[in-house]
Amino acid sequence: MEKFEINLAGIKLEHFIMNAAGTCKTLGGTEGVKRLVNSNTSVIMVGSFTLEKRVGNSGDVYDTQKGLFSLNSMGLPNPGADYYRKYLPEMVKTAHEKGKPLFVSVAGFTPDEYAELASLSLKSGANLIELNLGCPNIWEGRQQKHIACFYPLIVEEILRCVEERVGEKAKISVKLSPFSNPSNLKDVAQVIERSELVKAVVSMNTFPNAFAYDESGKPLITPGGGLSGLAGPAIKPIGLGQIKQLRAFLPDRIDLVGVGGIVTAEDILDYLRVGAKAVQVATIFLDRGVEIFNELLFELSDKDII
Ligand code: DHB
Residue 5 C-alpha to ligand 1 middle, in angstroms? Predict the structure, then answer.
């Protein structure tokens, strides 16, 4: 439907709803590109992927308390750069044949790795690269890895390295975690604004290190002693507040993509009202499957789009 069309980071989209990273990582299989292209998502979002293959965390890594929240600690499971070097071109072709752009989310452990993964993905024909600066669930023994987006100097270095490799014209977005300190959010927004590289900001990742017990009194999630990323409806007010702040901090040339706790069409309209141009869904997509895009678009069909 024409009223849903948008231009995101210079890319024309049929509408503004797409899957969030973490929900599609392979060409085939139940969470693969070949399945997702037959849905009504506006973009195929693949990843996040890392340089080395990762099996991910073990034990109970995802739990959804329907209607309230979900917790996860996947640990970035993905088949690694060699797989994407081989299969990304076919993923891109599969998406483009259905008229859908393909975006790729990458997660480096060093600025150079981000540059390498972004470059590989662009060479394979991906339309936009999302730098995942906010994965909270990487544990080495009891030590949790730093979450890049909370360190403006690290973000600056990642952007510098990526720009050096792919050039400032490349279509790059960054994905941030939820911030509780507004000054820290402003600091990172200033770093993003100073770089000509970033065309969109995706907000937000899961809220780090949340915790819940199951009915039997054991932690709902196994890795990290149960500390895990919070998603779903519980984080929507944080998501809206962060988009509202980012819209005030960042220039108009940088588009915003809202993600966090979307269940209904009204949730989407709320994100658009506070300044998002598009939205991503993960929890409801994982809970309810590929039909969610049709359902949300149907719900939106008789509404005025902001
Ligand atoms: C994971 C990665 C993320 O970026 C996130 O927000 C939540 C979970 C993960 O793979 O564990």
Answer: 29
